[in-house]
Amino acid sequence: ASKSVFGGGSLPGTELSSRAISIGDAGRSTAEIERSLRLGEPAVVARIENDMVLLDLRTVAREQDAALEAALSATLAG
C-alpha cells in the first residue's frame, strides 16, 4: 500500500490510497535509477522514499503496462 499526495490551493496535501512498485538496486543509487527512468523513452516519473524508488500505479493506465515494463527492464538492465 502507498499514499499519493496531490492538491494545492484550498486542498493542499490531500492523500489518496494507492499501490506502488518499490525498486532498489545494490549496484546503483536511488537517484541514478530515478534519473534513468525519467530520461528514458518513455519517460517514467517516480519518487524516492526511504531510499527506494517508488512508482505509483494509480497514475499508470492499463494500456501503459507494456511500456512501463519495457522502461523498467531497460533501466534495471543498464
Question: How would you characterize this protein structure?
Answer:
By secondary structure, the protein is of the alpha+beta class. It has a single domain, classed as Aspartate Aminotransferase, domain 1. The chain contains two helices and five strands. The strands form two sheets. The protein has a three-stranded antiparallel β-sheet with strand order 3-5-4, covered by helices on one side. A two-stranded antiparallel ribbon has the order 1-2. It is globular. The mean pLDDT is 88.
Question: How much helicity do the residues have?
Answer: 25-40%
Secondary-structure-derived class = alpha+beta
**CA-atom Rg in angstroms:** 13 Å
What would you call the shape? Answer: globular
Secondary-structure element sequence?
Answer: EEEHEEH
Characterize the biggest β-sheet: 3 strands, antiparallel
Average pLDDT confidence is 88
**Biggest sheet: strand arrangement:** 3-5-4
The top-level CATH class is Alpha Beta
Please report which band the strand proportion falls in: under 5%, 5-15%, 15-25%, 25-35%, 35-45% or over 45%: 25-35%
User: At CATH's second level, what is the architecture?
Assistant: Alpha-Beta Complex
Number of strands: 5
Please work out how many helical segments DSSP would assign.
2
Q: Termini separation (Å)? A: 28 Å
Question: Which descriptors apply to this entry?
Answer:
78 residues; alpha+beta; Aspartate Aminotransferase, domain 1; three-stranded antiparallel beta sheet; two-stranded antiparallel ribbon; 5 strands; 29% helix; globular
